[in-house]
Every structure is written in structure tokens, then in C-alpha cells.
Specification:
The protein is an alpha+beta fold. Helix content is about 55%, strand content about 20%. The protein has two domains: about 180 residues, no CATH class; about 130 residues, no CATH class. It has a six-stranded mixed beta barrel with strand order 2-3-8-5-7-6.
Length: about 400
């Protein structure tokens, strides 16, 4: 029994073969697309973190016990000279308020910060300048790119020098940020945020306690190590208080763990689709055995061995699954490419997804073909000829 003969038999029952192919094709395409999309999503997440740098550090007050309090200004002033190899630090205060110009108004986050925030958050300016250390209590504001578009009106777009309302106060726009990747450790959506001098927050909110400090670590020391040193340093200065440290590496590890879980779930769903396709192959092969009883009986009567019959039907099932798996893999790659184009991600084919798609298709073919092949091989030649 040869592969060529198995292919001829499948072509002879082309309609039935196509139906079986469709089930395997859908399952294989699901595996390829879902696993490959998961891999591209993980790679895109890692690229975003790499663009921002993995040397980010976030320092926040810890409220694990009743003794914890806000970070004091003298602690902020002492950090740059404490020997922690911090390239830049930027304390900030967050406050929610209405921002408006003319009839346009948005409820959004106000972020009071210092000149170091632009560098710490790896952001750029589209127009104007950023907050400087000389601004003090000045009524200046830097707008995120999205907020600037939202406040702009026909004939009166937001530009450097425009006057806007923040709460009941009037501010002058001195800069507009470029669209960029959201800093991972900052809770506010910077694109939709108004940034003002940190001391000017006193004009908007009676609460001028520091929300967080974002910093970039230099000197090659791992941010986690620097964070541990800062915690010990802070505890010496304030024995009854504590702070929390978060790093970009923590977020990367968490994101990768979540993506791994999602990838497993997607692969499981796709595998179920493949099993459904395998059931279709088994049904088609069982029908083929029933329809070809006379052929099987003749083959056995003229000397064919039972293992030859078994091999023939196993080959037919495997060919069905492998062809369906190959076509499904191509469809899955096309689906993943389409999503990458829509999301503007760099496209790549995951070797793991490719191998899993093809092997699962071949494996399903073998498994689905076992029962029909065994049934065909164990037919009695006389009964097969009599009832064929």
C-alpha cells in the first residue's frame, strides 16, 4: 500500500475529503493565529518597555500600617545626593479637575511635577517648552497630545500661548507633548493630562502631598537593588514610616506572566477546535470504511494482509489532516499578518506556533484514523463481500 494510492482514494471521494479538510483547516488556523498573535503581543510589550528603558523606578508612600505618611520634601531634596546613582528624579502630585477652553471642557488628570519628569518619563515636546525649575508658582501648563486635540476648537486650536481653565484658575499653555508610549509606572494617561509646576498645585488643591517619585537609575546597578537601598535609607530617616518601590522589571515580569497564561488559554481553545476537526476526519473515514466494504473484502480475498488495509486507511487519514493542517497554517499566518497590520505591530511568524500547528494536525490525523483503520483491517472477507 502506498501514499500515492491513498491520495487516489481521497481524490475519488473529493467532496467527502474536502469536508474533512475544512474541520482540520479551521483547527490548525486557530492554533497558528492565536499562538502567533500571542507571541507578537508579548514581543510588542517588550519593545515598548525597551523603548522607555528598564531602568525606571517608582517610589510611593506605603500605607501598609497606620504610621505611614506622605513622602516629605526634604526626602526628595536628599535623594539626589544620597549615593543611589539616580540619573534623574521627578516628584509629582496628581489631582483630578476640569480643563477647558471656550466651550470645550474635559475632566482629566492634572499632574504637578518638576523639570525632570520629561526625561524620567522618556517623553518629547511637539511645541513650546517643558516646566522648568524657575517656574515656581507660575500659571503655566504643558498639555498631552490627546488633551490638546480635545480642547482645540474650529478656528481656535490649542497652541503655545493659549489660555485654558483648570478648575477655577486660568493657565497659559507653554508646551504640547509629542504622542508617545505611555510611561508604564505612571498611573495617569499622560496623553490626556495637563502638567503644571508642582508648586502651582497649591492653587488647585489643598492637598499638596507628593503622590510618587519617578526616577531613572544609572551606573549599571539593577533598579531592584537600588530600590532596596532606598527603602533602607528611608527607614533610617523615618523608623516609623515605610515606602513602596516599583520597577519596570516588575511590570515586565507581571505582563509576561499574564501573556503566558493567555497564550496557554488561546492554545487550549484552538486545540479544542482541532479535536473537533479530528472528529470530522474520523467520521469521514468511518463512512469510507462502510462504503468500501467490497473493496476491502476483495483486497483481503486476493492476499492483502490486514496490516496493509490498516496502513492504507491510516495514510488516508494522515494525508487529510496534514493537507488540512498545511492549509490551515497558511490561513492562520494570514490572519496573524492582518491583525499585525491593523495594530501596526512588526509581523513575525512564531516557530513554536508553526511547529504546534503542523504537528497537532498530523497527530490528530493519526489518532482519528486509528479506529476506522482497525475496523477496516478486522473485517471478515466473506461478510465484506456479501454485504458490500
Amino acid at each position: 500500500m502506498s501514499l500515492a494510492e491513498a491520495c487516489r482514494n481521497l481524490r475519488a471521494a473529493s467532496h467527502r475529503s474536502i469536508l474533512a479538510l475544512l474541520g482540520v483547516l479551521i483547527g490548525s488556523a486557530s492554533i497558528m493565529a492565536m499562538v502567533d498573535i500571542g507571541a507578537m503581543s508579548k514581543a510588542q510589550s517588550e519593545r515598548q518597555f525597551a523603548a522607555l528603558g528598564t531602568n525606571l523606578l517608582l517610589i510611593q508612600p506605603s500605607f501598609e500600617n497606620a504610621q505611614s505618611q506622605a513622602i516629605a520634601w526634604n526626602d526628595v531634596d536628599a535623594l539626589p545626593t544620597a549615593g543611589f546613582e539616580l540619573d534623574v528624579i521627578a516628584p509629582y502630585i496628581m489631582f483630578n479637575a476640569a480643563v477647558g477652553q471656550g466651550q470645550a471642557q474635559q475632566d482629566t488628570m492634572i499632574l504637578g511635577t518638576t523639570s525632570g519628569f520629561l526625561r524620567a518619563a522618556a517623553m518629547g515636546l511637539d511645541a513650546g517648552r517643558f516646566i522648568s525649575r524657575f517656574d515656581g508658582y507660575e500659571d503655566f501648563a504643558v498639555l498631552g497630545s490627546l488633551l490638546a486635540r480635545q480642547l482645540g476648537q474650529d478656528g481656535a486650536p490649542i497652541a503655545v500661548g493659549s489660555k485654558i481653565r483648570i478648575g477655577a484658575e486660568q493657565f497659559v499653555v507653554i508646551g504640547i507633548l509629542q504622542p508617545s508610549v505611555q510611561p508604564p509606572l505612571v498611573a495617569a494617561n499622560i496623553a490626556a493630562t495637563a502638567l503644571i509646576p508642582i508648586k502651582a498645585m497649591a492653587r488647585l488643591s489643598p492637598n499638596d502631598q507628593i503622590t510618587s517619585i519617578i526616577a531613572r537609575v544609572g551606573g549599571g546597578t539593577p533598579p531592584a537593588v537600588v530600590g532596596e537601598r532606598i527603602v533602607r535609607w528611608y527607614h533610617v530617616r523615618h523608623p516609623n514610616q515605610s515606602i513602596g518601590i516599583h520597577t519596570a522589571e516588575d511590570l515586565i515580569a507581571t505582563a509576561n506572566g499574564q501573556l503566558a497564561i493567555y497564550s496557554v488559554m488561546l492554545a487550549a481553545v484552538a486545540t479544542i477546535s482541532m479535536l473537533v476537526g479530528g472528529a470530522g476526519v474520523m467520521n469521514v473515514m468511518l463512512v469510507a470504511v462502510a462504503e468500501r466494504r467490497s473493496e476491502i473484502g476483495i483486497r483481503l480475498a486476493v492476499g492483502a494482509r490486514r496490516r496493509d488495509i490498516r496502513t492504507l486507511f491510516l495514510l488516508e487519514a494522515t494525508v487529510l489532516s496534514f493537507v488540512g493542517g498545511g492549509a490551515g497554517t497558511a490561513v492562520g499566518i494570514l490572519a496573524a499578518w492582518s491583525l499585525a497590520q491593523f495594530a501596526q505591530w512588526p509581523f513575525g511568524v512564531s516557530v513554536w506556533a508553526l511547529v504546534l500547528s503542523l504537528l497537532s494536525a498530523a497527530g490528530v490525523g493519526l489518532i482519528a484514523g486509528v479506529l476506522p483503520a482497525m475496523r477496516a483491517a478486522h473485517l471478515d472477507p466473506i461478510d465484506a463481500l456479501r454485504h458490500g
